[in-house]
Structure formats: structure tokens, C-alpha cells
Amino acid sequence: MNKSLFLALFLSMTMQVFASIDTIAVDVGISVFKTMPIGVVPFSEPSGTTLDWPDEKPHEVAERDLNLSGRFDVISVPKFDLVKLSRARAKFYVTGKIEKALNNKIKIDFYLYATQSKDLVLGESYTVSLIDSRKAVHDFIDKVIYNLWGVHGIASTKLAWVSKIDGVKQIMVADYDGFHRRQLTFDSTISMMPAWSPDNERIIFVSFRNNKPQLYIKDVATGTQKRLFKKFEQTFSPAVNPKTGEILFSAIIDGKTDLYVGDPETQKTRRISFLKSSQTSPSWSPNLSEIIFTSDRGGSPQIYVMNSDGSDMRRMTFMGRYNERASWAPTGDRIVYTSMDDGKMNIYTCAIDGSDIIQLTSNSGNNERPSWSPDGSLIAFSSDRTGSHQIYIMRRDGSNVTRITKGGENTAPTWSWYPIEKQVKHNKEGKQ
Amino acid sequence: MKSFYGLLIAGCVVIGLTACANKQEPVVDPVVQETPAEATAPEQSQVNEDSLAALERERLEAERLEAARKKLQEMMDRVMSEDIYFDFDRSELTEDAKQLLTQVGEILNQEPRFTITVEGHTDARGTEDYNMTLGSARSTKVKEFLSAYGIASERMETISYGEEKPKQDGESEDAYAKNRRASFRVNVK
Predict the structure, then answer these.
(1) What is the CATH number of domain A158-428?
(2) Is the CATH number 3.20.20.70 carried by domain B82-188?
(3) A369 contacts in B (CB within 8 Å)?
(4) Which residue of B has its CA nearest to A302?
């Protein structure tokens, strides 16, 4: 399988999906997202015994991962079916074989086959406990995506969000698909605005335990926590620098909100905004040389960008009276933000000069707090379209909206970084 | 001798009661000083009247304290019930707000022991982040007004709760209007 063959495959076989997009600018291009049909065949299980799967069987997890990635259209077949797969233009299919292993574990062999030739494109074997089977599937699907698309998938990443539990907002952490959910905070006061440390092992968040909004950092595995930047009374809006671990945040001093950068280890901070107005919601550019943020200097919240030392500030959004909480795509080419119109919140993206505005959500309640997946292809957000706030994932063009939580009130999803081993690889290969 | 003891006991009771009733004003000496003089011509009824009078004074004192406490509580309650309302996405004080704040300022002038925390709140619309700055701006506007009214700024702390502590749940304009507010907490020094 060489590269030109793949290119030919893409051009001839990919299905074009036109997302329904509402535009608010005149000059808007039509966004086209290409997806690749892929077959999934249930894995063979050891005969004579039934395995007690925690929630879903491996092929169901694989289907979910492939669909959520936004890169594939899954063709489900109960068993290998050349005619059906060919008709659906599924050039590849995923299947596997499950065997019993020692110590109550199972061995899962994963296969990615070429449909026509039945050539094995990729094969991996994992010996895991039943409870860790999802993890094995996520890992394999990421390898499939790397093999077929040349980029790292996000199936092994995580989400943090805020859940209302007994009426109190608490921080939750979970796999990106909403499974393996865990409560991280157990305070009687509000916890909110989670952000991941670069190694994904700690969560920075805002706690009201001292009756004031203050930043804390908590270890996900051990629960160890400490307050950050104690010289400030009120701190919030944390944004992590994935290279240095430094934290951009907002602090209120004498009634005015300004932006600061702080080191969670040394607790040293420096101010980076010096305007008369209030600044909040800071976020780093992917190359960490620039910062986007919100300022109300024009009388209403609008998005601005400046160098990371605070110089060369310029306004980015001009349309509408309320544009907030911008976040730069890891791919560097788009900014996602939330805009309010007629009292409803909706998610938009624009080019980095503020042009080419595309509305991603509309006519479906309030849609807020977009967070990029580490590969920049997906956006997690919260919406109250069903009557309660829940977490959703969509493609970066607003299509393929999938709900990943139900019940209760879930808001403020925050995508983790790539797992640390993929971060290194990611950088070495210089891929975005 | 028996009645002398009685007097002594009554006197002790009076001292004890008054002392315990108001430690700041142990001015019960006149009663105590008078009793030995009267002890020369002891009369059972006199003793009773004395102790009754002492109890009456005691009762009045307790009532006075209770009234003072009540008044303080009423003043605190009044300050804490005075929510200052704002227009959508605004932190400027309305004329109504200024009138209310004048009353709050008056109470703070009358009762220098009060220190206040001004909490700034927003309605549920908008982002959590921006609403934190908006809540801060609202509480600060309130503090600035009271400061101009003559209240020392050391007596006032401002905190933003953003949209996190709504007074009324729901997505009606009525609920929104009730939640766009600055509220007070009062501490007594």
C-alpha cells in the first residue's frame, strides 16, 4: 500500500457530507468534510463461555470511536460481507478475536483488513482485564486513524466537565466518549472551569470553598490539591500552556479583571494586560506566541488578540454585541468562540484574522463553552437543546453532533491534551 | 439572725443577677450599700420588695438589650434584603438602585460596627467567565457609590459570584431580572 494508492482511494471513495451551516457573513465558503466508509465486524468470542462486558462489546466501542472521530462512516455488518461492504465503498474493515487469558484477563487481537484483497493492513494484540477492554479498543482505533489518515486520533483522550451533583457543581473526569466517569471534587461549594495540566494528571479549577472564586490544582489519581496564586483574592478562567505548564488566568483586583500568567510550581505570576477595561477568558495560540482573550473595552465583550507579552493588541470580532471565550484550534487555522444573539448562545468559528465567520450551532437552545479536540478536528460543547445541559461532540464544521452525557446537568467540557507519549511523537514528527 | 441571713442571700442574689445581666455596667452598689442600714430594722416585706425591684430592673435591662439586639438584627436584615438590580449586561446604577443604596449607606453610618460584603451576580445568559467580570463590575459600582456616601472602603469587601448563585431559577425574563443584582452580607465587628 503506497501513498499514491491511498490518495487515489481518498479521491475516488470518500463520501462528501455537506454540513448544514447557517452563515452570518456574506463571504462564507461552504465547508465540506470528507468521511471514509469503514466496515466493522463483531469480534469472535471464545466458545462455551459468555464474557461479562462492563458496558459495550469491543466492536461496539470501535464503532463509537470511529463515528465520534468524525473521519469515518461506520458500515456495521454482523459478519464479513464482501458485497455489502463493497457497495458501501468500505475499502477497509475492522474486526478482532477474543480469547481467554491467564489471571482472569482476555486477549484481544485487533485487525484492520482491506476489504477486497483481505490483506491485513494492521494487527495488534492486547492482553487486558475486561474492565480495560475499552482502553485497548481506543488505542487500536487511534492506530487505525494514524494508519489511514496520518494523524493521531483522539480516542485515548479524556474530557473534564462540570456536573451538578445534589445541586452543587463538581468537576468530573471521563474518557472522551463519556465512559469511565469519575467525580474529582466533593466540596459542598461550587467547583467549576476545569483545565488539564500538560501531562493530563492534574486538573486546574475554580473553587468557591473560601466564598470567593479561587484557582486550585488537584491530582486526578491521588486527590492531592493546593491553592494557586494565593496573592490574589479572586482568580478564574484558567488556560494551560501545554509546553511549559504555565497558567493564564483572570484575577480581580479593585473591581477590575486582568490577565496574568502564573507558574503553578513556583507560584510566580506576572501581569500581561494593562487596559482600563476588564479582560477575561485568555487562551494560547498553538505556537504559544500569542494570546486571545475577551475585553469589554468597547462597551461589550469582544475578542482580541495580542502577543504573549501583551504587546500588539488588535480586535478580532466585530459582528454582534457579544463574542466571548475564544479558543484557538490546535491546527492553528481557526478560532472557535461563543456569541450571544437574542439572548441565546451559539458557537461560531472564524479565521485567525476574524474573517470567514461560520455559525456551527443554531435553533437548538443555548450552545456554549466549545473546546477543541487535541487534533483540532472536533469540538466538545455543552447545550441545553434537550431541556437540560448536556455534553456534545461535533466536527469542526458543526456536523455530526453526538451527545455523550444524559441525565442531570453537565456543562463546561474541557478536552485533555494528547497522552504524554503521543505528545512527544507529535512534536518530533512536526505534525499539527 | 435568720432574717439577716435572708437579706444577705437576697443581696447576693441581686448582685449575682445584675452582674450576670450586664457585665459592662456593674453599677449595683447602691442596692448593696443600702441593705446593711436597713438590716437594723429588718422587715420581711422590705426584703421581698427589694428583690422584686431588682428583678424588675433586671427584666427591663434584658428587654433593653433584647430591643437593641432586635434593632441591630432589623438593620442587618434591612441591609441584606436590599438587593440592587441592574440592566442586562450593565453595571451602571439605576436611579432606584441609588435610592436604595442611600438607605443602606444611612444604616452603615448609624451602625459603625457593621462591615459588609457586596456580592455581584448576573443572570444565566452569557458565559461563566464574562459573567464573573460583570458580577465584579456590579459589586464594585455599589462599593464606589457607598464610598462616595462616606462609608470607609475598609468596611466593604466585593466578591463576584458571576452566574453561580441565582436568586431565582428558570429562564424567564422575571428570573433574569431578579438575578442581575448586587446583594449584601453584613458582619458585626
Answers:
(1) 2.120.10.30
(2) no
(3) 127-128
(4) B130
